[in-house]
Amino acid sequence: MTTVTAPLAGRAIGLPAVPDPVFSGAMVGPGTAIDPVREESEAVAPVDGVIVSLHPHAYVVVDAEGRGVLTHLGIDTVQLGGEGFELLVAKGDTVTRGQAVVRWNPAAVEEAGKSPVCPVVALEATAEALTDLREAGEVAIGDTLFGWQ
């Protein structure tokens, strides 16, 4: 089983509360979402693995079992063209859980008119494969968001 931990601090709200139908409908995959604290921070790797996709606003880490976890920093943030995001690793890098991947400021994202809500999604998984899904309450970096069987 893979344990997926919070890549940032904030409040767990669950995918249905994400202001984007692709994420709220779990079309990308099951998971949860975090409404982040509004301060400059670093989004970290939610699992040990390899960065297989890396953009200023989103990244995917694939673990040793081949399971990909997407962390999406805000909604429609691709439209910001990378402004306000700083990549701290490179595609292909091996990362450990809790290692900083992207520095960003959720407050600046909000000021730019975008939602700072961050989906954390188990790619190519079924909802039934996830256990102990956190969809409410405060979360700190490294807190368990869900298990993936």
Automatic annotation (TrEMBL):
The keyword Repeat does not apply. Pfam families: PTS_EIIA_1. Keywords: Kinase, Phosphotransferase system, Sugar transport, Transferase, Transport. Its main location: cytoplasm. Gene3D superfamilies: Glucose Permease (Domain IIA). SUPFAM superfamilies: Duplicated hybrid motif. The keyword Protein biosynthesis does not apply. It comes from Streptomyces pactum. Residues 20-124 form the PTS EIIA type-1 domain. This is PTS glucose transporter subunit IIA. It comes from the Bacteria. InterPro entries: Dup_hybrid_motif (IPR011055), PTS_EIIA_1_perm (IPR001127), PTS_EIIA_component (IPR050890). It is found in: Cytoplasm.
